[in-house]
Task: inverse folding
């Protein structure tokens, strides 16, 4: 209940800023835009069907602009309906984005429901702390977080991030445990130019809940510290890495270590074949750098444009230890306002998991989807 009050307070604060700015400014620019999509899917194994309709209306407003000072506002909704014409019949309406931003040439601060994302990895995302992107999603949806984020840009392209979050109790990004109710999360990031590329250092702190039935509620108040480094360079081929160590304090006293190493290159074959590959390693251990519970994955992504309007995509995930595969292939046709995406996916194991979300891939085995997207 307290989190709901905090979100309402943030909403009213943003509404006050927005209304006051409209009152004193005569040159506001309003921009209405959005997406309407429909997804129809079917399993080729058991003839199960799925339909999802989604509407993402957005309103962007340039509230104030003078010299180097800019204030703008964004409000986006996420309205969806999903059914399998049998047992699933879900509808949902919620905010997708709701923030107000003040920015200059070298500084930016943003308050509200927003996307906070950094790091260069694509298939396996150790640094996907607050986002929830899926490379196979034609809509490119990503959940936002409630909070305040500030960013300062130096003249040499270095930048510093600071953030504070509140009211984000559901698991987000790659989190194993949900955030403790009524607690503040905070962290920061330094991003530096290095050897013709970029290098970053990141930190985040929060209190988490295990939700284990054998842990007393009054004691379920444990601290988590995340430490990460990442880098990206272009040396003819693209090279990047993301590495993270998470220290779970108190009852669940363990280290979780993750690293992704990746590279990509466009082969001058026909219209240009883009190949991206990543290797992911994860270890859960009682002591830092001690090998205990390991998971290893590899992935490859392929893109090939066919003319101006068509693109063929392929993604293959490989579980190194269990020698299992998850495969995804799609064809996308894009017009000015409408795009079509036809995809097929299958897996060699019912237990194959998406390492970014922890969700099982079983429901996507031998599954065909057609997604139609209208942008306005």
Result:
């Amino acid at each position: 209940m307290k989190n709901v009050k905090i979100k309402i307070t943030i909403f009213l604060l943003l509404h006050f800023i927005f209304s006051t700015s409209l009152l004193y400014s005569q040159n506001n620019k309003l921009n209405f835009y959005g997406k309407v999509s429909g997804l129809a899917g079917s399993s080729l194994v058991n003839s199960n069907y799925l339909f999802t309709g989604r509407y993402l209306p957005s309103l962007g407003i340039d509230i104030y602009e003078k010299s180097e000072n800019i204030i703008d506002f964004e409000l986006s909704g996420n309205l969806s309906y999903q059914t399998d014409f049998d047992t699933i019949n879900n509808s949902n309406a919620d905010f997708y984005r709701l923030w107000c931003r003040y920015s200059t040439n070298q500084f930016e601060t943003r308050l509200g429901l927003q996307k906070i994302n950094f790091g260069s990895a694509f298939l396996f995302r150790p640094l996907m702390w607050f986002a929830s992107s899926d490379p196979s999603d034609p809509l490119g949806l990503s959940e936002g977080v409630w909070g305040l984020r500030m960013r300062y840009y130096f003249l040499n392209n270095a930048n510093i991030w600071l953030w504070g979050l509140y009211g984000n109790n559901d698991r987000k990004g790659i989190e194993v445990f949900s955030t403790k109710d009524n607690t503040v999360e905070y962290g920061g990031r330094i991003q530096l130019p290095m050897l013709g590329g970029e290098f970053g250092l990141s930190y985040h702190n929060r209190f988490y809940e295990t939700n284990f039935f054998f842990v007393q509620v009054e004691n379920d108040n444990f601290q988590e510290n995340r430490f990460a480094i990442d880098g990206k360079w272009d040396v003819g081929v693209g090279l990047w890495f993301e590495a993270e160590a998470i220290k779970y304090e108190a009852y669940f006293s363990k280290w979780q270590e993750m690293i992704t190493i990746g590279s990509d290159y466009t082969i001058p074959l026909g219209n240009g074949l883009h190949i991206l590959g990543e290797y992911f390693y994860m270890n859960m251990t009682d002591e830092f750098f001690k090998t205990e519970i390991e998971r290893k994955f590899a992935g490859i992504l392929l893109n090939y444009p066919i003319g101006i309007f068509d693109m063929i995509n392929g993604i293959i995930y490989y579980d190194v230890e269990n020698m299992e595969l998850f495969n995804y292939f799609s064809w996308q046709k894009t017009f000015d306002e409408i795009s079509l995406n036809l995809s097929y996916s299958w897996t060699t194991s019912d237990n194959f998991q998406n390492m970014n979300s922890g969700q099982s891939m079983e429901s996507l085995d031998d599954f065909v989807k057609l997604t139609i997207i209208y942008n306005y």
Observations:
- The mean pLDDT is 88.
- The two ends are 36 Å apart (CA to CA).
- Residues 2-24 form the longest helix (23 residues).
- DSSP finds one helix and 19 strands in the chain.
